Amino acid sequence: MILKNKLIKRFYLISTLLFCGLVFIFLWQDFWQTQQLLIASSESKEKIALDELIQPITLQLELNQSKVKLGDKLFHEPRLSDDNKVSCASCHNLNIGGADRLVRSMGIQKQLSFVNSPTVFNSGFNFKQFWDGRAETLEAQIEEVILSERVMGGGSWLKVINKLKQSEYDSWFRKLYRDGITGDNIKDAIATFERSLYTPNSRFDKFLHGNQNAITEEEKQGYRYFKSYGCISCHQGMLLGGNMFQTFGLLEDYFGDRGKVTKADLGRFNVTNNEYDRYVFKVPSLRNVVLTSPYFHDGSAETLEEAIKVMAKYQLGRQLPQTDINLIIKFLRTLTGEYQGKPL
Ligand code: HEC
Ligand code: HEC
User: Using a 6 Å cutoff on CB, does residue 288 contact ligand 2?
Assistant: First the structure.
């Protein structure tokens, strides 16, 4: 009996010791990790406010510069189209914000696009391409555009490749790619160029990097409204967009009010055939947005003021005072960045 009691006592003692030991190890690990984090954050040269839902655009990307150069040539090359008249730059003019300032774009043989052309600037950071996100990658987006009967009319890669092979591109491609001109290599070069079209160093990014004077008090107020009214719940991340899908007309019936619903208006539904995806679109980036009117996939808003009123009504179910709209516009103006070191 005594022996048994002793055994039980010893068992309890050992268990308690073991338990305390485990707790100690656990707490120590936690403490250690916190220390490491503190060290890491104090080591980072620039202090980026970690609580922000918006991140500055990467300052420097490592890209193969020879491919960027070749991609640049191809991007501006009308011979990529069937009638040698339409290049990517026809609808994505880099001198006017990377789009064309038209409600609909003009493709081969003056065919109009079904939706407004978005900017190519920063498109490399989009989680998917096109308004309905039907292209998973830049390469898939390029393939569709070059071969499309409506956009560049290529029809098949063979035709495009044969044309380029009889030109100076033949030797340019051979220098960079072992197998010379192929569909994949054309896509690779253009996609690399597209990735080079990022626009860091906007005044807002300087503010995010810790320079409190980079934006004015009014612009800061506009940013506060952008957050407090809830724009930021959809327009967030590095691009203030480009990282999720949302219904256009979340709280009020946008398409019912606008009328004349087209197939393109069905948005992501056209990709998934899922009822939940009716009228769902990729939330567009708001980087450089002052330069890329008209707005929305249907190009229906000519000014930022109109666009914000529509957003407030249909996405947030409210009307904003004019003064608040003006301040939000001032904030959006701080999002214009630099391309190759020059303001866009
Ligand atoms: C005829 C005008 C036209 C031409 C030519 C054209 N695009 Fe576009 N581009 C558009 C339109 C319109 C859209 C939107 C289509 C959609 O979402 O369904 C678009 C979408 C894109 C997107 C997606 C951006 C985003 O935010 O989703 C990228 C990237 C792009 N084009 C790059 C290119 C490249 C590269 C070329 C040349 C190979 C090219 N485009 C040729 C009009 C054009
Ligand atoms: C519930 C999500 C959501 C909220 C909240 C929201 N947006 Fe949007 N925003 C979108 C979507 C989706 C689109 C694309 C609509 C379309 O054209 O199909 C868009 C488009 C835009 C555009 C047009 C961009 C372009 O290039 O065409 C602007 C500008 C804009 N939003 C600003 C705002 C502002 C400012 C607020 C706050 C007042 C706001 N948004 C709130 C989802 C949202």
Answer: no
